[in-house]
């Protein structure tokens, strides 16, 4: 399943393209971090492993200045490799962030 053909029953992670089934670890990511002016701003629903990887890879300042959109996050070389890899895992896969 790709980003262009969403499952009407489950939201789709905009980063890895996998459905987010009920019960799967998930969280909302503030595109602009709350501590950098994003409180009350736009959020996106992600798999928890995708969200955790973002915060392990980028600082709050980098997120606010350069990586404050889904497109920018998907364009980061290290994150893009991770999202391509995790896209091949089952939708409810939890994984561990290194």
From TrEMBL:
Keywords: Endonuclease, Hydrolase, Nuclease. It comes from the Bacteria. PANTHER family: HNH DOMAIN-CONTAINING PROTEIN, TUDOR DOMAIN-CONTAINING PROTEIN. This is HNH endonuclease. It comes from Paracoccus zhejiangensis. The keyword DNA repair does not apply. GO terms for molecular function: endonuclease activity; nucleic acid binding; zinc ion binding. Residues 13-56 form the HNH domain. The keyword Transcription does not apply. The lineage of its organism: Bacteria, Pseudomonadati, Pseudomonadota, Alphaproteobacteria, Rhodobacterales.
């Amino acid at each position: 399943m790709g980003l262009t053909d969403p499952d009407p029953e489950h939201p789709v992670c905009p980063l890895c393209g996998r459905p987010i089934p009920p019960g799967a670890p998930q969280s909302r990511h503030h595109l602009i971090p709350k501590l950098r002016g994003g409180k009350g701003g736009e959020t996106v629903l992600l798999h928890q492993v995708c969200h955790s990887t973002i915060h392990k890879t980028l600082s709050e300042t980098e997120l606010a200045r350069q990586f404050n959109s889904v497109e920018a996050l998907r364009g980061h070389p290290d994150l893009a490799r991770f999202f391509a890899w995790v896209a091949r895992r089952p939708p409810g896969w939890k994984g561990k962030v290194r």
